[in-house]
Amino acid sequence: MKTKNVAILAALLVLCFIFAATPATAYEVTDWINSGDGYQMNNIVIDAIVGVSDDDVNDSSAQISIWEWKNDKWTQIGSASKLQINGTANFTATDGNYTIKAEDFRASGRGSVKLNMWTNAEVTTNRYVTGGHTKVEGTGKPILKITKIASPTTMSVDGIVTVTVFVENTGKYEALNVTVSDPSQEMFVLTGTSINKTNIKSIDIGENETVLMYTLKATAPGSYTLKNVTVSAANSAGTRYDYTPNGTVTVTVEELPALEFNNSFSGNTVDYQTRSKIDGVLRIRNIGTAPAQFVSVEFILPPGATVSGKNITEANGKSTVYIDQISPNNEKVIEYSIGATSEGYYNITGTYNYTYNGAAKSGNLGTITYTAVGNNAIQTVTDLPGYPYIFIVPVILVLAVAFFFWRRHREYKF
């Protein structure tokens, strides 16, 4: 029993060696090739020059030359082979191994040879070629330009960036069976996808295809180089090529602002004569996780504008308030008054600076816009228009009336 098992095992091993030694055949074709013509498989053309003997087929032969399309031109593989009946020629091309066998000859016409051709390459193009390789062109590598862009490239944590990927065929060969692979990005979360073309049947010469468009949300501060897209495409001969973008895209994610500023006002008009004011309230809240230190708020004053309040210092056309520290989840309230020393239209700009986690932060509070007017509701006599005539004319009228009644009174008396 043991001897029988050993024999079976040995037989299986022999079969394995036999199958391993047998070349895999992916494609096989047999065709009659006239002298001076050829046969194309992928980027290979097999040319045949046939010499036929009418007396004895064994004296007939075919000179076989192998041409491969490389760098946009035909290049001969090795030297020509002279095949007689049942003769074979073997060669290796870019896409696989090939074997050619002369099976028969015939003298009719220019003379022809019956060739059996097989290869382990995946054949996507096969045809009879009249006139041989000089009458056709092969197919080369499609030139694909991969562009990956991000907008915006600077944002805060929880900000959204839109990523778009383009594939443009800038070469002279059509790109077939295009696949697109874009790896996920650490420290970002996918929030939406509007274009997702990861398998494209073809991209024609000169065509620019938008293959991906999606949005990411930033989850942590830092500077990140987005991972490269990988694109794979085949030419019409079935040869595949891989592509990546020439450059990289870097996205900078800034930490969320530690301080939140909220500025409110009681109005937008002051009276410079009565020195009335606009009341302002600036609330500064720490929404971060660490203390904000060395906080300063600065109001830049145009001539005639004033900003005053508790702990506010004014110098060199600026009003400034200083706060040593604002702890997380705490709020500081700055109350101030806005005024003017003359009539006009005023714009006061505000800025802030502070330190958070050892980094300096700065920004703008916006612009405070207001108008200063004079109070003309109560006017002195000399301010009235037409002075002094508004008094002289009534006096003259009163005197004229009095004179009239005095004359009448004298007439009645006499």
Top-tier CATH class of the largest domain: Mainly Beta
Structural class: mainly beta
Low-confidence stretches: 14-24, 377-384
In helices, the fraction of residues equals 10-25%
N-end to C-end Cα span: 180 Å
Number of distinct helices: 2
Q: Which fold does the CATH topology of the largest domain refer to? A: Immunoglobulin-like
Number of domains: 3
CATH homologous superfamily designation of the largest domain: Immunoglobulins
Folded structure, characterized:
- It is a single chain.
- With 414 residues, the protein is mostly beta strands.
- The chain folds into 3 domains: 22-135, Tick-borne Encephalitis virus Glycoprotein, domain 1, CATH 2.60.98.10; 144-254, Immunoglobulin-like; 259-373, Immunoglobulins (Immunoglobulin-like), CATH 2.60.40.
- Helix content is 11%, strand content 53%.
- The strands form 7 sheets. Strands 2, 3, 4, 5, 6 and 10 form a 6-stranded antiparallel β-sheet that branches. Strands 23-31-30-25-28-27 form a 6-stranded mixed β-sheet, with no helix packed on it.
- A hairpin with a 5-residue loop joins strand 8 and strand 9.
- It is elongated.
- The model is unreliable at 14-24 and 377-384 (pLDDT under 50).
- The chain crosses the membrane at residues 386-406.
- Keywords: Membrane, Transmembrane, Transmembrane helix.
- InterPro entries: Ig-like_fold.
- It comes from Methanolapillus ohkumae.
- This is DUF11 domain-containing protein.
Question: Can I get a quick summary?
Answer:
This protein has 414 residues and is mainly beta. Helix content is 11%, strand content 53%.
